[in-house]
Specification:
With about 220 residues, this protein is α/β, with parallel strands linked by helices. The protein has a single domain (about 1-50, about 65-215), classed as Rossmann fold, CATH 3.40.50.2020. The chain has six helices and twelve strands. Strands 1, 4, 5, 6, 7, 8, 9 and 10 form an eight-stranded mixed sheet that branches. The protein has a two-stranded antiparallel ribbon with strand order 2-3. The chain has a two-stranded antiparallel sheet with strand order 11-12. A hairpin with a 5-residue loop joins strand 11 and strand 12 (about 200). Helix 1 (about 15-20) packs antiparallel against helix 2 (about 30-50) and helix 2 (about 30-50) crosses helix 3 (about 85-95). The longest helix has 20 residues, at about 30-50. The radius of gyration is 18 Å and the shape is globular. The model has no long low-confidence stretch (mean pLDDT about 95).
């Protein structure tokens, strides 16, 4: 897997991640969602540099100009519900993509720390020979992305895979590296060192879905 950890570079991206982590700033749900959306824009811009392009000739009011334009056929799949702001950020820049959505969530049986990932809903176009972008803001254990990719198999085999995340753990990054094709690209804004006993990223930022949309029952 090719890992692009943009948080290692000095840029405004780190300011947005700081605000996501701050227990004071993240109380503003609208700002929290907007920061995830803006991170999605930055990551998708960097991702776009790796896409195939073709030359297109356009007529301007004063002449003719040739430009290099991305030509990949892209399917963007986001994991509900936390992935929605990230999905929108990517869509703001890659606005001609096809869209897929999947409901994948953790189930802790009997209150135990161990959990399984349950997939209950999936809507997707064909991904055969297309570029697949998987958007999941929190790459904790990597099991959700693994199960999501497995569920998408019936929709075809993608030509290329990109994973877009806000924060991951070293363990989660290692897991997806082991289960995804070796030419998969990971675009991420920060990687933290560890997980707690329930599989949440430390220091992380908390539950991205709850912070975006409110606590679930």
């Amino acid at each position: 897997m090719i890992i692009h950890n943009l948080g290692l570079e000095n840029s405004i991206l780190n300011q947005f991640v700081l605000e996501l982590r701050s227990v004071d700033i993240q109380k503003d749900r609208m700002r929290f969602r907007k920061n995830i959306e803006r991170i999605g824009e930055i990551l998708s811009y960097e991702l776009s540099k790796t896409l195939a392009s073709d030359t297109k000739t356009i007529q301007t009011p004063l002449g003719i100009k040739e430009m290099h334009i991305p030509v990949n056929r892209i399917v963007l799949c986001s994991i509900l519900r936390a992935g929605l702001p990230l999905h929108q950020g990517i869509l703001n820049y890659l606005d001609t993509v096809e869209n897929a959505f999947i409901s994948a969530y953790r189930v802790h049986e009997n209150g135990e720390d161990d959990f399984k990932v349950v997939v209950e809903y999936l809507a997707s176009p064909s991904i055969q020979d297309k570029t697949l972008i998987l958007a999941d803001p929190m790459l904790a254990t990597g099991k959700t992305l693994e199960n999501t990719f497995a569920a998408l198999q019936e929709y075809g085999k993608p030509k290329q895979i990109h994973i877009v995340s806000v924060i991951g753990s070293e363990e989660g990054v290692s897991h997806v590296n082991n289960v995804f094709p070796e030419n998969t690209h990971l675009w991420i804004a920060a990687v933290d060192q560890k997980l707690n006993n329930r599989g949440y990223i430390i220091p992380g930022l908390g539950d991205a879905g709850d912070l975006s949309y409110g606590v679930k029952l």
